[in-house]
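Onboarding guide, step 5: your first structure request.
Type a short instruction followed by the sequence, for example:

Predict the 3D structure of this protein.
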Amino acid sequence: MKIQYIRKLVKQALSVLRRLDAILPPELTEPDWANSIAFRWQKVGNAGVLQGLPRPHTFPLSRLAAVGTQMDKLIRNTEQFLSGRPANNVLLTGARGTGKSSLIKALLHEYAERGLRLIEVDKHDLATLPVLLILLAERSEKFIVFCDDLSFEDGEDGYKALKTALDGSLSCRADNVLVYATSNRRHLMPEYMADNVGNAGEVHPKEAVEEKVSLSDRFGLWLSFYPFDQNDYLAAVENWLADFKLPLDEKARHAALNWAQMRGSRSGRTAYQFACDWAGRLPEEREVFL
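The system replies with structure tokens like these:
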């Protein structure tokens, strides 16, 4: 009877441990530096865990269309960084689906062999960004901290940690880390008409405006992205179809324009989505595309 009781206790303990394992944060361990080129940083308590991503979503820069000027500036800044020369943190802003995030992801494809590494950080995990910077400071690789679709609402305080990490800490900025962020908002925080007329309850409304624009000011390089015209959109479609070994013939061109009209958007994202749909169709299905 005693053995059966012990077995029952062990079984119950294992059940409890399995349930705890499902809700507890992952164990803080070193990532696989040697076999990973992309990582994700996640907040755990007052620190965080850096997880390697085995299959990062990246592709050649040549796949991107209508962002040549922005691409040239970002490449120049990144090559300065990789060469050990001064370089800036970068804020990419503008119309949705125009290649902001894709441009950063494509850098990893081009420069991973030169030691570039990409670390994705969600805005909700930014509070522990200083901990990440300490972890990276001792590494020989060059890291881009990638904050995608970054914006903050009133009351969120993650932007304060990002401000400090960019250009507000007493310690020197790490030579092997830059921050590249994308956003649809130029100043990353909502702005209201009341901010301009001074009737929002602020005794010093100008200082409230200064606080809202101070974060974007800490990015040394701003890159703006604009909506695609028809030629830009078709160029993006052609690039993505080439990735699937398909031509932009007259049939595909007509289908791509119909696709954009149905979506109400001409952008690099729309072009990629069309190319995925077109490539996934059987030849006879392309004949009756609607």
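Each response can be followed by summary notes, for example: The radius of gyration is 24 Å.
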